[in-house]
Amino acid sequence: MNSAVLTLEEVILRFGCEKRNGRRVVFTNGCFDLLHPGHIRSLELAREMGDVLIVGLNSDASVCRLKGEGRPVISERERAEILAALESVDAVVIFDDLTPREVIARLLPDVLVKGGDWPGDRIVGREEVEAAGGRVVSVPVVPGYSTSAILQKIREGARASRAES
């Protein structure tokens, strides 16, 4: 199946039947501002936990509210297109809220996956997924990769090159 950028309603219509047919729907989310190997490995791990992987993507407005001025670096449409092109991703849904609670509550995935940097009791959607009989999985963060660290390196490099000229 080709990945697609879909609305929440389209995701529910397309993948609700997957659940009814006994296939496991997995959901994860994030900003994915500068895609790096840590993101790729986490998405591949999430995909291994089920038959379908749906990625919730923070909109530009929510990334700005979460990460501050100057973020995101890449627009939501471009971030969504990049994610949708990954073999491990079946669908991408963009959401405007600070958290994906509404998406999770309406989709009710079989498996909710979040990075290990989130304490288990703070994983948004945990209650809804577990109440519906699903499970919540925390995957280890891949050390050495961080969008903020990459941006810091870029900024420092830009300052260093200006100072040398």
Structure write-up:
The chain is an alpha/beta fold and 165 residues long. The chain has 7 helices and 6 strands. It has helices at 8-20, 37-48, 60-67, 76-84, 101-107, 126-131, 147-164, and strands at 4-6, 25-30, 52-58, 91-95, 111-115, 135-139. 31% of the residues are buried. The mean pLDDT is 89.
List the helices and strands and how they pair.
Blueprint: E1 4-6, H1 8-20, E2 25-30, H2 37-48, E3 52-58, H3 60-67, H4 76-84, E4 91-95, H5 101-107, E5 111-115, H6 126-131, E6 135-139, H7 147-164
Parallel strand pairs: 1-4, 2-3, 2-5, 3-4, 5-6
Give the helix tally.
7
How many domain regions?
1
Largest sheet: 6 strands, parallel
Please identify, by name, the CATH architecture.
3-Layer(aba) Sandwich
The CATH superfamily label reads: HUPs
| Mean of residue pLDDT values | 89
Query: Helix and strand string, N-terminal first?
Result: EHEHEHHEHEHEH
Helix content: 40-55%
The helix/strand class is: alpha/beta
Q: How are the strands of the largest sheet arranged? A: 1-4-3-2-5-6
- Low-pLDDT stretches are none
What is the CATH domain class?
Alpha Beta
Sheet-strand content, in percent, reads 15-25%
Q: Over all CA atoms, what is the radius of gyration?
A: 17 Å
Summarize the structure.
It contains seven helices and six strands. By secondary structure, the chain is an alpha/beta fold.
